[in-house]
Amino acid sequence: MVGPTCIGKTKLSLFLSKKFKSDIISCDSQQFYKEINICNSKVNKNILKKYHHHFINICSVYEKFFNIYLYKKKVFSFLNKYFKKKNIIIMVGGSMLYEKTISNNLNLIKYNLIKNNKKDISIYLEYIKRKDIKIYNTLDKNNIKKIINYYNILINTKKKISYLFKKKNKINNFKVIKIGLYNKKKYILNNINNIVNLMFKNNVIFEMKKIFLNKKKKYINCIGYKDLYFFFKKNITLKQLIINMKYKIKKYYKKQITWYKKDLLINWFYNNNFNYIYNYIYKYLI
């Protein structure tokens, strides 16, 4: 279940979960964390009790970062057990790469980050040229972030990046139906404004301040994190914080649209046509 933020993916997932008597997996990377509930519009405790959700509240911001590699490993381990009992499961969330990692079984390149502690970027470029000339020839020499990223991969994996990119994704042992929700841009932007207003009405400031002030926190990277930081440091007003949060979420919405347009496997539906979507999936499964 994919689509831009504030489109109604959660409502549809609950509707389909009830219809198919199936569980729900979250692929929203912000909903993994127990302490963040308002800032990511997480479903409430009553819904979590009524519908079987997985990969929500599975770790803490005060623990080690729960990365995409660990997510993939745990999800596939869970699915192997789940499909022995049930035939259908619903995955929902707006973290694009997390969704695609499972639905397309992406071949992830794992490496330990080596920080850029060299002043001259030419050192990285020279190393890439020496180790993988094919990648070097296609690399934008002004893209410092990508240069350092490729350098990290070469140092850690000891394999050519061109070889790693050629490795095919594994084929899933289960069928995937991708359902995408859409609506007019005006509808989405209006929803974003309303949801951000609701977040502040529900005291998102108090929720995030508790985390910010705790020195033991290991991870926090929600949308608008920097703006919250500036607000707590009294560098911006509450009014400016709300404006900035709305702007950042709208920017993320545009990023999601660009990402999803590239995925030709998505079947798109108007976001309020739940019964039509259910019938489409049901016919596909027969």
Tag the structure with descriptive keywords.
single chain, 13 helices, globular, Rossmann fold, mainly alpha, 2 domains, 286 residues, two-stranded parallel sheet, three-stranded parallel sheet
Largest beta-sheet details: 3 strands, parallel
At CATH level 3, the topology of the largest domain is Rossmann fold
Residue windows where pLDDT falls under 50 for at least 5 positions = none
Percent of residues in helices comes to 40-55%
Query: What CATH architecture label of the largest domain applies?
Result: 3-Layer(aba) Sandwich
CATH H level, superfamily name of the largest domain: P-loop containing nucleotide triphosphate hydrolases
Number of domains: 2
Number of beta strands: 5
Describe the global form: globular
Order of adjacent strands in the largest pleated sheet: 2-1-3
* Distance linking N and C termini: 20 Å
Structural class, from secondary structure content?
A: mainly alpha
Q: Number of helix segments?
A: 13
Radius of gyration, Cα only, in angstroms? 21 Å
Rounded average pLDDT = 88
Beta-strand portion reads: 5-15%
| Oligomeric assembly | single chain
Order of helices and strands: HEHEHEHHHHHEHHHHEH
CATH class of the largest domain: Alpha Beta
